[in-house]
Automatic annotation (TrEMBL), chains A, B:
Matching PANTHER family: TRANSCRIPTIONAL ACTIVATOR PROTEIN LYSR (PTHR30427)
Species classification: Bacteria, Pseudomonadati, Pseudomonadota, Alphaproteobacteria, Hyphomicrobiales
Coiled-coil intervals: none
This protein's name: LysR family transcriptional regulator
Family listed: Belongs to the LysR transcriptional regulatory family.
Length: 301, 301
DNA sequence: GTGGCAATGCGGGCCCGTCAGCTCGAAGTG
DNA sequence: CACTTCGAGCTGACGGGCCCGCATTGCCAC
């Protein structure tokens, strides 16, 4: 029994006549009549008794009607579900990001995504990069955003752009008079930056060596945002990524670091897991949001 | 999503490869590949990601897989149900009959029916004819067998044959010496027969009048089988239908009544209700059983 | 006769199937 | 290292069957 035959059968049962059923299904009466006859032929027994030019359901028809209706409703439900999937009206998007992109890029990406797909559940995970990789591998997140593009081979990293370093100064610090700082400006200052043996720390040391200066933090952090409190407390100048929206925090001044290294902004996905439609839509929004944020950075802040 | 597409999708999900799925469905690999591609085209999103010549289900495919399997199983169940209906392997047949056919015809009909369709539930109702008509109208029975063909217009009566009267004599009665009796033989005997204002009583009286004798029962019954006890007790000679297998009862002799009226044996159905396949099969068996019983009656007893 | 209903005949389009042939990647072999 | 082989899936051509609309007929009731 084909799905179409199910629909026709149900329509005739509900409408009572072939003509009315044909109207319900928006097809011609002969077409429906043919399908009905063919169905009965295939089944091997009659579904309706023709009496005086009218139809009367046989006991067999009544017997299978309930099942037919249930199945047809199920098919219709599946059809709706698939159109929802096509249009991206259902599902859950989980994005794992390290704090800077989570605070700088995801809000914008989520906003535009939500405007386009209001019914999709969104979940944001702020995590260090090792945790992001684990989540991508386990399927706990399908998209990741981090400030690193050197990743295991089973993780695909698409570089969306790059962002430099920023210096966080306590309010009133002498160096706040300059619009941008260089590494040599920081000589003799108490520095707060990433702990050793991490990529940003290495790159910073490399750049400093190239410029003939020495940069050695006296206070090490692992996540840039934790520098906020230390700078506010006057413990020193922080050398951190310029992505995080530092201006939102009171009590510190932000100055870009000239000639410093760059962080790559990478969009991470698992190579062993395919993206769902909604994941792809979110990926597009993250790309767009990133370019907007970077553009704003260049012109505005 | 067509039913075929559902099957193909499930087969590919289960088999893992297109070729294996095609083997499962006994079709060629290109055919299945086409259906799968067409399905994805119709859905608007891909179900499998092609990587290195292999297929990997997308999140959407995993999402709808459970529903698809459930629906497909439902369709398969309906398919089995319809073949059961066609072959008459399912259902319930309810037959209402008055006592003589219920004891003489139905056992044979049920036996041959059961031999052909062992899985069908059978139900026999022994009831007076008024109750039979009510049951047919209400759908509590779909077939009826009675010794009357004059019935309301909404009941169809198909006459399967006819049966005459029999005389039930107490063992040792003088008339037992004759192989058959006539109405005039019964003059002066105590008679047991149907109550007045019923069809057999009227016909009996009519036949007696035609033969110039008077038949007036001194003991009235409504159902012929109830005469057994009265005859065994020596209360008189019973004039009843010859259909009921009277020889099964001890303590009475049976002699046919010559030149008596005939009972029509009628197979009853409701004109407003259609017969199911199994009902029709049972109807055929009742017809056959009736002709066998009547033929045996002519030759054997 | 007229109107409503179901069935039939005819023609066209789409789906589905087989068959033959193709590309691509992995694995084996000299 | 180049070649072959094999298995995976895709493409194109062709045919049959299902589904559809249009025109028409048969049947019944009013």
């Amino acid at each position: 029994m084909r799905a179409r035959q199910l629909e026709v059968f149900i329509a005739v049962m509900r409408a009572g006549t072939v003509t009315a059923a044909a109207r319900m299904l928006n097809i011609s009466q002969p077409a429906l009549s043919q399908i009905l006859l063919h169905t009965e032929d295939e089944l091997g027994f009659t579904l309706f008794e023709r009496v005086k030019g009218r139809l009367r359901p046989t006991p067999e028809a009544l017997e299978i009607f309930a099942d037919a209706e249930r199945l047809s409703a199920g098919l219709e439900g599946l059809r709706r579900k698939t159109t929802d999937l096509r249009l991206g009206r259902t599902g859950l998007v989980r994005v794992a990001a390290s704090p800077p992109p989570a605070l700088a890029i995801l809000p914008r990406a989520f906003t535009s995504f939500r405007a386009r797909h209001p019914d999709i559940l969104l979940r944001s995970h702020m995590a260090p990069i090792a945790a992001i990789v684990d989540m991508l591998r386990a399927g706990d997140a399908s998209l990741g955003v981090a400030l690193d593009d050197r990743l295991p081979p089973d993780i695909e990293a698409e570089v969306l752009g790059s962002v430099g370093f920023a210096c966080l100064l306590p309010i009133g610090h002498a160096l706040a008079g300059k619009t941008e700082l260089t590494l040599s400006d920081l000589a003799g200052e108490e520095l707060i930056s990433y702990r050793g043996n991490t990529r940003p720390a290495d790159e910073l040391a490399h750049a400093a060596r190239a410029q003939g200066v020495v940069v050695s933090p006296s206070l090490e952090i692992d996540v840039s945002i934790s520098a906020v409190g230390f700078v506010q407390a006057g413990l020193g100048i922080a050398l951190v990524d310029a992505l995080l929206p530092w201006h939102q925090f009171a009590g510190l001044a932000v100055r870009p670091l000239a000639n410093g290294p760059e962080f790559p902004i990478a969009l991470l996905t698992s190579r062993t897991r395919a993206l769902s439609r909604v994941d792809e839509m979110m990926r597009d929004q993250i790309r767009a949001a990133c370019s907007v944020v970077l553009g704003d950075d260049k012109t505005g802040a």
